[in-house]
Amino acid sequence: MLKNCENCGGQLHFSPKDKGNVCSSCGSVFPVQYNYSFNKKTFDEHTMDQSTDELANSLRSFKCKSCGANVMLTKFQMQTVCPYCGNTTIVKSKSKNLLYIDSILPFTFGKADALKKFKNTLNKKFYANKKVFKKIDENNVSGIYANAFVFDISTASTYSGVFSYTASYRTRDGKVRTKTYYKDVSGIFDKAYKNITVEANSNIEQEELYSVMPFEYGSAVEFKEDFMYGYMLEYKDKMFNSCVATAETIIKEDIKKQLLNKHGCTKIERLTLNTDYIDRRYNYCLLPIYLITSEAKNKRYKVIMNGQTGKLGKLPKDKVRVFLTILFVCLLIVGGILLYMYFSK
Ligand SMILES: [Zn+2]
Ligand SMILES: [Zn+2]
Fold first, then answer.
1. Whole-angstrom Cα distance, residue 98 to residue 224?
2. How many whole angstroms from 252 Cα to the centroid of ligand 2?
3. Residues 294, 128 contacting (CB under 8 angstroms)
């Protein structure tokens, strides 16, 4: 999003260090008030996919012709680079799908620091592919606010079924055997879930987002456009109800895990699980994400970074190093066997 400076007409960008918007031409700083707030609304208060009026009016949605990603841009932002694939084939699209934004987690460091953090982490990772990121600079870093629903959901479940686990034992003649043990289980299980985060856009996968979690929701502030100058906004293409369903799936999976733990088992043979979701609350929040892209040998690489903590998502692997390690381990094993055979003669 873009805004012009009151003093000179230059372009403003949000600077986490200055806690305000800085003009890139005259250097003026316009402080932004941080109003800390992360109250969650009940589902009844849910304003059915209604948008923040002012924001919706100043935004238009665009689609990348190359990778299909959607982004939101302001009226004044004429052309830009797709943050997901780096191509410049961004065309205007009709769809607009913005919901009332409750809160925002502002970026805590700028692009230059993001690049520094990225390079530092990359250098420490032995198996990461360093070659493809050799020539990157600040232009390879883009900041984007991801859309997410953050849920608090209390659950009460009743369950019955059969769980199992396997254990090994030694027979009288010294042989090791494994056996599966079955357990009839039933009971009640209550758990309150906090801050279940569901990505409301399909450009960044849920799993990808989880790879840079957690976010510190304690420093969430009331949504204000001022935090967004110089940053892009992800396009929200998932409906509230489908995000609720995703949250419930995440919760159900966790309940199953908790139940297995509770009964000391490792596998579910049969299970009837009835879960009531009580006191469901949510907050529609913008999360700070840096995308680091690079192109090498006609292939595009993208790594995501948590714009609040600097945590990096999955890095592309250096296949040669991975291969050499596997080869080395194999040689060690073969060497070990040969030595054993030699000495046990
Ligand atoms: Zn200025
Ligand atoms: Zn693209």
1. 15
2. 34
3. no
Closest-approaching ligand to the CA atom of 24: 1
Ligand nearest to the CA of 29: 1
> Would you list the domain boundaries of the chain?
33-314, 317-345
**pTM, rounded to two decimals:** 0.80
Q: Which ligand is nearest to the CA of 23?
A: 1
How remote is the CA of residue 28 from the centroid of ligand 1, in Å?
A: 6
Mean pLDDT (the chain) is 87
Q: 307 alpha carbon to ligand 2 midpoint, in Å?
A: 20
Q: pLDDT at residue 84 above 70? A: yes
* Identity of the residue numbered 301: Y
Q: Which residue has the tokens 């100058």?
A: 229
The b/e string for 111-144 (b: 16+ C-beta within 10 A; e otherwise) is bebbbebbeebbeeeeebbbebbeebeeebbbbb
Please write the tens of the pLDDT for every residue from 218-248: 999 998 888 888 888 887 778 888 899 999 9
- CA of residue 77 to ligand 1 center, whole Å: 18
